[in-house]
Amino acid sequence: MTAQSAQHCINALTGAAPDTRSPLDTVISMADTLESSRNAWVIRGQSSSRRVGGWPTWFARNTAEKPLLYLHRAASSAQLCALAQETAQRGILCNDIQNNPSQPSLPLWLTSNPRCTPYDPASGEEARAIVLAGLRALYVDGKPGFYYLALHDQHSVVPLAGQDREAALKGMYPIRRDTAGDVRLLGAGRALAETVHAAHLLEQDWHVTAHVWSCPSYTRLAREAAMAQRWNRLHPLAPKRSCHLRDCLADSAAPVIAVTGYPQAIVDQLSAYVDAPFVALGAGSVQATAPSRYWVVVAALKALADEGRVDARQVEVAMDRYALKCN
């Protein structure tokens, strides 16, 4: 029954024109479509309480009948934990972070919860692909757990080509690889826009070329890499297994700068699995908020200087040029 309802949902959402709206607007539009189809539970609720009774949960008795799409505003891990428990840790939970920025504990709780597959989509197209994948994985294929999407209202012009859709769901796909690539820049969610701007500044101001990757889920990349590493350790005579992260970055030894608007620990997860100089940038790395494009440029130049690729004095010149201060 649930699988049939989920397939009806997928059919209703498939075939839409390329979405240039923000992730938040895109998911709200998808929710409207699902609500009209009557094949999914669409819950729009918010609460400042960590108590289970503070969340709209009238649907809890019937979650086996239809897929669940829950649009909410949870600011802390305690609030989201309460919501996840009430939904039996099943469904697609979409958090409006644009108007309700999360506390540092929330993304860390998401990465450590094995039942959660967390995503931070940068564009409406990424958000659409993730919701459709969640409907298929959870309700058609019957996989356990829940999907989580952090949604913002910033529009993105980054297209998601058909051949990149599966790669995006695995955690990363290229959006700019038309140059030699002195460095590799990885960005997620709202931080992707700053990462793209940083690539332009590197080329314009410093004659440094950059490959740019969108990373909708650093956590999914790290989990798959950890599973491959564990399998290789336990099967020393078998052919080694790779992972999506290593497959994407295998063609170069250029430094990798990974950027997130969340705490640096979110991208630190990748460090053990990147076979190249690696720099993680997040909220608190160089400034209290998410790193600006200028700090991304400086991090890239510093990584190149450490490799002897550029003069180390250029790093200080860049900090002066962009009026950056460090404490």
TrEMBL record:
Transketolase-like C-terminal domain segment(s): 171-271
PANTHER family documented for this protein: PYRUVATE DEHYDROGENASE E1 COMPONENT
Keyword Cell cycle found: no
Species this chain originates from: Pseudomonas cedrina subsp. cedrina
Protein name per Swiss-Prot or TrEMBL: Pyruvate dehydrogenase
UniProtKB keywords: Pyruvate
